[in-house]
Design goal:
The chain is α+β, with helices and mostly antiparallel strands. About 30% of the residues lie in helices and about 15% in strands. The protein contains 26 helices and 25 strands. The strands form six sheets. Strands 8-6-5-4-13-12-11 form a seven-stranded antiparallel sheet. Strands 18, 19, 20, 21, 22 and 23 form a six-stranded mixed sheet that branches. The longest helix has 22 residues. The protein is globular.
Length: about 900
C-alpha cells in the first residue's frame, strides 16, 4: 500500500512534510535473486557487516576532466546544501578512491571510505530511470500508528551529468504524448521539466568517463525531498551515518542511521504520536534504501476498466486525437511471460511471481503464510500459467541477502506492531503499471483481530473457538486468509465490496454451494466469516473462512491472460471488453470498490455477508449474536489469576458486530443498486431499490436497532467488567445507526427518487422520517413509561436532527486530495430535507405535549419536558420565538 519518505538535511533547513501514502511494490524470482558481482570485482556484500565477503580496493583509472560548470550551478549547489560555492575541481581517481575504500561493483560501483559513501556512476547509467525505495529498518517508535507501515516512500529519479556536477532529477510520467511525432510534444515539455532533487560535485572521473560523486547525504538526511514525511526537523549530521552498502547488477542497497533532535519521524515527544507512545525527545531511525533501475523495455500495459477491480496508474495523454485531454489508466500487474515449458494448456512463466516468507515469522505460522501465497495458483491457471505464483523460505545462508527491504526481493513480512492490521503495498513502474516489488506487511496483533472477529461471527458454530486462546491450527488458518487477502492487493487487486451481495441468501446457507464457491465470491471483499450460517445448515468449519473465489479467478484471468496478436494496449480492448461483459450473465463477477461504502448501493457494504436484502442476512446474524452472547463467560474464563480483559474486549466487539450488521440495513432506504457498464451494454447502471424493500428496512430497524437489545445486557457479564457504561455503549451504537439512516446524501437521493418516480413506486423521505419518528418514540402513543435506554435513544434522535438543522462548519480536507475522493467526502447539503426535518420536530413536539399529561411516571414526564425544551432550542437556535420556560 504505502511507503513514506525519510532522510535528513546537512545544511538545508527542512519544513514539515505532509503525510503521503504512495503505492509500493516489486517482485523477484529465484532467477532474479541478488548474486555476487562477477569475479573481476569484489563481492557485492563486502561493505555490509552482516554479509560475507572481504573488502577489496577499487581499480584506479585515468580521469577525464571536462571544463568547469557555469556559475549558475554554484547557486544550485548552495541551495541544495552540497559542495562549495565555487566551481567543482575533480581530483585524480586514486586520491578519491583510495586502497582503503571498500568497493563493490554493480548497477553503480560503490566505495565506502571513512564513513563517506561514493557512487561511481558509469556513463551507461546516466539519464536512465531509477527508483529509490525507502524502508524503515529500525526504530523505537510504535510501528502501526501513523505512518502505519515500515514503508517510507519511493521516488523515481534520473542521474544527469552537467559539466563537473551530477544532478539527481525527480521524474514523473503523469503528462505524456502517446505519439512523440505529434507537434504537441513540444508544448508538453512545459509541464514535464524535471525538478532537481540534489546536486553533487564530481569528485573524480573513472575509466570510460564514469563519474565519482559523494552521495552520503542522500542517505543520511541531507536532501529535503527524501526526508521522512513526518519529520519534525532536519537530521543531525553528527549523529547520522551510512551503515552498510551492497551493490548488485540491477540494484544498490544502502542502510543508514538518521537522528532527529525533534524525536522519531514516526512520533517523538514533540508530536501527538510521540506523546501517545512515550517516545524519547531524540529519535534515531535505521533506514534501508534500494536504488533500482527500471526495465529497459517497459511492459506492454493493459488498459484499466472500471468494471474490474485493479489498482491503476494514470496519465494525461495530450497527443490523443480525441477533442480533449485523454485520461489513460493502466492496471497494475506483474510481468508474466510464458516460457517454452508447458503442461497441457498451461505454460510455466519465465519468472514466476515469487514471495519469500520473512524469517522473523513465528515458526507456527510459516506453513500457513506459504499456503496463503500459493492459494492464488489456481487463479493464475485460469490466466494460462502453471505455478504462476510461488512461496519460498529464505535459506539460512541467504538471510543477510534475501531481505524484504531489498527492492528485488518480495516478501511477506512480519512487523512487531500492536496495530490490528495488515497491508499489501506495491512499487509500480509509472510507464506501464508493471509491479516491480511487493512487501506484504503482517502486523503481529492482527492475530488478536482474527480471534475477535471469528469468535463474534461464527464462534457458536466452531467448538475450537469456544475457549480462548484458539488452537494454533485454527489461528494458522485465519492467518492464511489474511495473507491471501494482502497478497491479492500486491497482485494489483482492489477491495471488492460488491462480491458478497451477489450470492443468493439460500446459497450462502447451502453446505454444498459454500464448499464449492465460498460464502463470498472474492477474498478481496470485506466479508470475513459466514455470520448468516445457522447451526442447522451444517456448514463445514473449513468453509466458514473466506478463500480465493470465483471473482478473484475471473479478475486474474482478465488482467494476466496474454492476448496473442495484440501488439498494443488499444488492440487488446475488444478482448478485455468481451471479458468484462461476462458480468452481465455471471453476477458474482461484478465489482464494486472501496468508494462503494460511501455510495448509493446497499450491496456494496463493508463487512457484509449475504445477498442484496440485508434485512434477511441481518435477521440471521442477530440470531447468531444471541448465541455467541451466551458463550462469552465460558470462553474467556480460561486463565485463572488474570483480569477480565478478554471478556471486556470480546463483549465490546460483539456490540460492534451488532451495530455493523444493523448498519447494513440502514443503507437500504434511498438506495440504488449499481452495475458498472460501458457504452454498448444493455440496461441501466443504476436500479432503484424497490419501495417495499426500503420500507421493510425501516420497520426492521424500529424492531431491532431501536429496541433495546436485552441479550447484550447480561448482568453476569456487565458486573464483571464495569460499574456503569452499558447505556452509553448501546446509545452510541444506536446513534451511529441513526446517522447512517439519516445521512444527508441518503435524504437527497430520496428527494430525487420522489421527483423522478411515480408516487406509488417511491418510498418518500417524508414517509421514511415519519416511520422513524414513530419507531423511536413508540411510548408516546401508549402513554407508557420510558426506560433509561430508550430515553438515551430519543435524546440521540434529537441530537442527530439538530445537527442537520444547525450544522457545524464543514471540515477542511487536505489540499491535493484526488478528485474522486474529494467528491465522495464532500458534504451534501440536503436543502429539501430541512423543511421536513423541522416539520418532524414540530409534529413530535405536539405529540409529546399531548403525552405529558397522560404519563404517570415522573421520570418519563421530566424526560419529555426536557425533550420539548431541546426541540425548542433546535428550532430557535438564536432564541427568537423560543417558548418561555
Amino acid at each position: 500500500m504505502h511507503r513514506f519518505p525519510l532522510l535528513r538535511g546537512r545544511r538545508a533547513s527542512l519544513a514539515l512534510a505532509a503525510l503521503v501514502l504512495a503505492s509500493a511494490c516489486q517482485w523477484r524470482s529465484p532467477e532474479n535473486a541478488p548474486t555476487p558481482a562477477p569475479s573481476t570485482g569484489p563481492t557485492p556484500t563486502a561493505a555490509s557487516p552482516a554479509s560475507p565477503g572481504a573488502p577489496s580496493p577499487g581499480t584506479p583509472g585515468g580521469p577525464t576532466t571536462p571544463a568547469g560548470a557555469p556559475s549558475a550551478m554554484a547557486a544550485i549547489m548552495a541551495s541544495m546544501g552540497g559542495g562549495s560555492g565555487g566551481d567543482p575541481s575533480p581530483r585524480p581517481y586514486g586520491m578519491v578512491v583510495t586502497p582503503f575504500a571498500r568497493t563493490q561493483r554493480g548497477l553503480v560501483t560503490t566505495h565506502l571510505a571513512r564513513g563517506r559513501l561514493y557512487f561511481e556512476i558509469p556513463r551507461a547509467q546516466l539519464n536512465r530511470d531509477m527508483l529509490i525505495v525507502r524502508t524503515l529498518r529500525g526504530t523505537q517508535a510504535q510501528v502501526g500508528g501513523l505512518p502505519f507501515t515500515t514503508l517510507a516512500g519511493d521516488r523515481l529519479v534520473r542521474w544527469e551529468r552537467r559539466e563537473n556536477r551530477v544532478l539527481l532529477r525527480g521524474i514523473e510520467y503523469r503528462n505524456v504524448v502517446g505519439d512523440t511525432t505529434n507537434p504537441v510534444a513540444r508544448a508538453v515539455e512545459i509541464v514535464t521539466y524535471a525538478p532537481i532533487v540534489a546536486a553533487f560535485n564530481v569528485e573524480a572521473y573513472g575509466p570510460d568517463s564514469s563519474v565519482v560523486v559523494e552521495v552520503s547525504r542522500l542517505f543520511t538526511g541531507g536532501v529535503s525531498d527524501l526526508l521522512p514525511s513526518a519529520a519534525r526537523g532536519a537530521a543531525d549530521p553528527s549523529r547520522s551515518f551510512v551503515e552498510s552498502v551492497a551493490a548488485y547488477p540491477q540494484n544498490v542497497e544502502v542502510e543508514a542511521s538518521q537522528t532527529f533532535a525533534g524525536g522519531s519521524p514516526l512520533g517523538g515527544t514533540t508530536s501527538p504520536l510521540g506523546a501517545l507512545f512515550g517516545q524519547p525527545p531524540t529519535g534515531t531511525e535505521l533506514y534501508h534504501y534500494s536504488l533500482v533501475r527500471l526495465p529497459d523495455v517497459p511492459m506492454k500495459p493493459r488498459l484499466y476498466d472500471e468494471r474490474v477491480g485493479y489498482f491503476n496508474t494514470r496519465q494525461a495523454d495530450f497527443g490523443s486525437r480525441e477533442q480533449r485531454v485523454r485520461r489513460v489508466s493502466f492496471i497494475n500487474r506483474w510481468r508474466l511471460e510464458c516460457s517454452d515449458r508447458r503442461e497441457g494448456n498451461l505454460c510455466y512463466p519465465k519468472r514466476p511471481i515469487t514471495y519469500y516468507v520473512d524469517p522473523a515469522t513465528p515458526t507456527v505460522y510459516v506453513p500457513w503464510v506459504k499456503k496463503g501465497i500459493e492459494e492464488w495458483q489456481g487463479a493464475f491457471e485460469a490466466a494460462g500459467f502453471k505455478r504462476g505464483i510461488v512461496a519460498r523460505e529464505v535459506p539460512r545462508d541467504s538471510v543477510g541477502i534475501l531481505r524484504g527491504e531489498n527492492a528485488n526481493v518480495s516478501m511477506v513480512r512480519w512487523v512487531p506492531s500492536a496495530t490490528e492490521n495488515a497491508v499489501g503495498p506495491s512499487t509500480v513502474d509509472p510507464r506501464s503499471g508493471e509491479i516491480l516489488d511487493a512487501d506484504v506487511q503482517i502486523f503481529h496483533n492482527v492475530t488478536n483481530l482474527n480471534r475477535d472477529w471469528y469468535f463474534t461471527q461464527v464462534g457458536h458454530l466452531d467448538p475450537r473457538a469456544q475457549r480462548l486462546p484458539f488452537p494454533d491450527s485454527l489461528m494458522g488458518r485465519l492467518m492464511q486468509f489474511v495473507v491471501a487477502h494482502e497478497v491479492g492487493h500486491t497482485l494489483g487487486l482492489r477491495h471488492d465490496m460488491k462480491g458478497s451481495s451477489m450470492y443468493p441468501m439460500d446459497s450462502v446457507r447451502s453446505a454444498s454451494w459454500v464448499h464449492r464457491m465460498g460464502h463470498s465470491p472474492s477474498i478481496m471483499d470485506y466479508s470475513r466469516f459466514n455470520y448468516v450460517a445457522q447451526p442447522e445448515d451444517h456448514i463445514a468449519l473449513e468453509d466458514l473462512v473466506p478463500r480465493v473465489g470465483p471473482y478473484d479467478t475471473y479478475a486474474v484471468m482478465w488482467g494476466y491472460t496474454p492476448i496473442p496478436g495484440a501488439a498494443t494496449a488499444e488492440a487488446e480492448k475488444p478482448t478485455t471488453d468481451r471479458w468484462s461483459r461476462m458480468q452481465d450473465s455471471v453476477p458474482w463477477y461484478r465489482f464494486g470498490g472501496d468508494e462503494g461504502i460511501l455510495g448509493p448501493d446497499p450491496g456494496e457494504a463493508n463487512e457484509a455477508v449475504g445477498d442484496q436484502d440485508a434485512v434477511r442476512a441481518t435477521a440471521l446474524g442477530l440470531k447468531n449474536i444471541r448465541r455467541v452472547a451466551r458463550l462469552l463467560e465460558a470462553a474467556t474464563e480460561t486463565r485463572p489469576g488474570e483480569p477480565y480483559d478478554d471478556l471486556q474486549e470480546i463483549y465490546e466487539r460483539l456490540v460492534g458486530q451488532w451495530t455493523l450488521e444493523l448498519g447494513h440495513v440502514a443503507r437500504i432506504p434511498g438506495g440504488d443498486y449499481k452495475q458498472e457498464k460501458y457504452v454498448g451494454q444493455k440496461g441501466d447502471v443504476y436500479a432503484r431499490v424497490p419501495r417495499a424493500r426500503q420500507k421493510a428496512a425501516v420497520a426492521f430497524l424500529n424492531a431491532n436497532a431501536f429496541q433495546t437489545p436485552d441479550y447484550l445486557l447480561d448482568p453476569g457479564v456487565l458486573r464483571k467488567i464495569e460499574a456503569s457504561g452499558s447505556i452509553d455503549r448501546v446509545g452510541a451504537a444506536q446513534r451511529r445507526i441513526l446517522n447512517t439512516l439519516l445521512d444527508n446524501a441518503r435524504l437527497q437521493r430520496m428527494v430525487e427518487q420522489e421527483g423522478l418516480g411515480a408516487d406509488r413506486d417511491t418510498y418518500s423521505m417524508g414517509e421514511m422520517l415519519g416511520d422513524v419518528r414513530r419507531g423511536v418514540w413508540t411510548e408516546l402513543a401508549r402513554g407508557a413509561a420510558t426506560d433509561p435506554f430508550r430515553r438515551r435513544l430519543q435524546l440521540a434522535y434529537l441530537e442527530v436532527i439538530g445537527s442537520k438543522l444547525n450544522p457545524a462548519p464543514a471540515p477542511a480536507f487536505p489540499v491535493g486530495l484526488p478528485p474522486d475522493v474529494a467528491r465522495l467526502l464532500a458534504p451534501v447539503n440536503a436543502i429539501d430535507a430541512r423543511a421536513l426535518l423541522r416539520g418532524e420536530l414540530v409534529d413530535l413536539d405536539r405529540e409529546i405535549a399531548a403525552a405529558v399529561g397522560r404519563t404517570r411516571d415522573r421520570t418519563t414526564r421530566l424526560h419529555l419536558q426536557g425533550a420539548r425544551d431541546q426541540i425548542d432550542r433546535i428550532l430557535h437556535p438564536d432564541g427568537a420565538g423560543r417558548r418561555a420556560n
